[in-house]
Specification:
Layout: H1 37-40, H2 50-57, E1 61-65, E2 74-76, E3 79-81, H3 83-94, E4 98-102, H4 109-117, E5 124-128, E6 138-140, E7 149-154, E8 170-174, H5 178-186, E9 191-195, H6 199-207, E10 213-217, H7 218-228, E11 233-238, E12 247-251, H8 255-267, H9 270-285, H10 291-325, H11 328-376, H12 382-409, E13 417-419, H13 421-431, E14 438-444, E15 451-453, H14 455-471, E16 477-486, E17 489-496, H15 524-534, E18 538-544, E19 548-556
Parallel strand pairs: 1-4, 8-9, 8-10, 14-16
Antiparallel strand pairs: 2-3, 5-12, 6-12, 7-10, 7-11, 13-15, 16-17, 17-19, 18-19
Helix pairs in contact: 2-8, 10-11, 11-12, 14-15
């Protein structure tokens, strides 16, 4: 079965809405969206089981929970509509299923789920996230709405590329949603403000400066920004979390209704999916993404990225040539001067050009997402999807390059706290993809003292050193990680049995843009060095060519620094 990918609604919890409304299947406002059955013939393909037929014959009235959350649920007086409701009405009208919308301002989300569990008041919710915990009392249909979480800020706000940039900021999220738990668990430094207000009210608080940012559903945020005229708001960055896929949820003693809905969704034609999608989304989301603009922006970003790399590489080669031409008496002084100049220029270029590239790269990423959702539903689109995959892959490569440049240019502020070294090492090894040809040896005593450091920064350093060690052993070998007390510091070491580092390169490996790899721009070790130093430590390396290399990170117990 082909699944149409497009913008989805996540169910908002405990929103204030109008009084409870009843509505039978005599639908008039939706008739202009329904395609004539004589043209589509889709319902002839639906074959129901005897149990499903019996459920329909019983003449149940389905009580459907609804609230005002445009564009997916829109409550206006006595009228309920929206993208999700169009699916409900289309399917229920076909099967002559009677239903009533339950719009109750006093009913919270948790009360709604409790009613479903007790088989009272509410029988069905049009959008709900499928979790294992809810499977005990809810029958889920297939997921049919999809959309990512994003960060929304004001136009004049500081640049935001990841959620780390929101540390110490007041950030609103929809109350009770899964995103609230994810941020509380993974980003405790963010001053989270869960709100049960409408999406319009939440974004108005952001637009008027009452909050610093909002993390929400991209489809809902874009719709409200457009409809309410919040011209000072923008989509600033993606989040690292998975899309909030949505299904329909039915009380657990009605599995037949879930089966009827699944079969109806599978039998719908491309035209019917498009009719619903275009009614609510096409005008609002495709206005800035014409084919011509898309390719122009793609060419601009790709061209600018390569121009930046060529300029930086040219600058690096010119400096190396100048160093060789200096006399022996001035060699050491000149090398120091060149390094300072190179770092200053690279930092300036990375900070300015990297910021300018991040926004158009985000536009390309969103455009690819929308195009894929449309092309997936079109017949004979395999070739277009293949080229779209190439664009997506190149955009991701460019994004990684820009991220490295920004990481190198950004001032490193360490949020240090005591960390258990053994747990950190075990976490790194457990999450790293290690080939079967490489054996791992961990030597960390249980009584090793905690280290005063920024967990995420040192985790990034260890992941980078682990990746380098694995790449140094393409035919397999042994990877060792250890920790020991040295003076008043902890020495974290990563050793490989790879091809080692030539002596002539030992002094260069921490220089920006120096690399011997076929891919990469030589910023991994310089970034790691900067992060370790920001945590009051230092990094050193020992290597025997042909036998391997050992990178050692020295980190302090407390707030003092380790002496190199």
């Amino acid at each position: 079965m082909k699944r149409i990918l497009y913008i989805c609604l996540i169910l908002l919890l405990a929103l204030p809405v109008s009084a409870c409304q009843s509505r039978e299947t005599d639908v008039t406002h939706f008739d202009n969206v329904l395609l004539p059955e004589s043209e589509t013939g889709i319902w002839e393909e639906i074959t129901l089981t005897s149990a499903e037929e019996a459920w329909l014959s019983a003449g149940h009235t389905v009580h459907v929970y609804a609230h005002d959350w445009p564009p997916f649920m829109v409550v206006d007086g006595q009228q309920v509509e929206g993208l999700a409701m169009d699916y409900v009405e289309l399917i229920f009208k076909r099967h002559n299923i009677a239903y009533q919308y339950i719009v109750d301002p006093q009913m919270s989300w948790h009360e709604t789920l409790a009613h479903m569990q007790n088989h009272e008041v509410v029988d069905m919710v049009p959008t709900i996230n499928h979790t294992s915990e809810r499977e005990s009392y809810i029958n889920f249909t297939q997921d049919y709405l999809f959309f990512p979480w994003v960060v929304i800020t004001r136009e004049d706000a500081d640049f935001v590329s990841t959620l780390d940039d929101l540390r110490g900021k007041v950030v609103s999220v929809p109350y009770g949603f899964v995103i609230q738990d994810l941020i509380e668990k993974n980003y405790p430094e963010i001053k989270l403000l869960p709100l049960s207000d409408s999406g319009e009210d939440i974004l108005r608080m952001l637009a008027t400066g009452q909050t610093d940012a909002h993390i929400g559903n991209l489809g809902v945020a874009t719709y409200i920004i457009k409809e309410e005229g919040f011209t000072n708001l923008k989509i600033a960055a993606p989040t690292p979390f998975e899309d909030h896929d949505q299904a329909m949820g039915i009380r657990d003693d009605w599995p037949e209704l879930a089966g009827i809905i699944d079969k109806s969704l599978a039998a719908m034609t491309v035209e019917q999916h498009a009719a619903i999608r275009n009614r609510w989304l096409a005008v609002r989301y495709e206005h800035g993404l014409s084919k011509r603009d898309f390719w122009i922006r793609t060419a601009q970003v790709v061209g600018a990225t390569f121009a930046l790399l060529l300029a930086v590489l040219f600058w690096n080669n010119r400096l190396q040539k100048e160093i060789k031409e200096r006399t022996k008496e001035l060699e050491e002084a000149q090398e120091c001067l060149v390094r300072r100049e190179k770092l200053a220029v690279l930092g300036q270029m990375a900070g300015s050009v990297g910021h300018e590239l991040r926004n158009p790269l985000g536009v390309i990423s969103n455009a690819v997402y929308f195009m894929r959702s449309v092309l997936t539903a079109m017949p004979e689109s395999d070739v277009l999807l293949e080229y779209l995959g190439i664009i997506e892959e190149e955009e991701q490569k460019s994004e990684r390059i820009v991220s490295d440049l920004l990481d190198f240019a950004r001032v490193k502020t360490a949020y240090r706290s005591p960390v258990a070294i053994k747990e950190l090492v075990q976490h790194i090894v457990g999450t790293c993809s290690i080939p079967d040809s490489i054996t791992v040896d961990i030597q960390v005593a249980d009584d090793i003292p905690d280290v005063f450091m920024d967990y995420q920064q040192i985790e990034q350093v260890l992941n980078n050193l682990m990746a380098n060690a694995i790449q140094a052993m393409p035919e397999g070998g042994q990877l060792s990680m250890g920790a020991a007390v040295v003076d008043h510091c902890i020495a974290l070491s990563i050793t490989d049995t790879g091809y080692g580092i030539p002596p002539e390169n030992m002094e260069k490996i921490f220089e920006p843009l120096f690399t011997t790899k076929a891919q990469g721009i030589g910023l991994g070790l310089p970034i790691s060095k900067n992060l370790v130093e920001a945590n009051g430590g230092f990094i050193e390396v020992q290597s025997v060519p042909g036998e391997g290399a050992t990178f050692t990170i020295m980190l302090p117990f407390g707030e003092e620094m380790c002496d190199a």
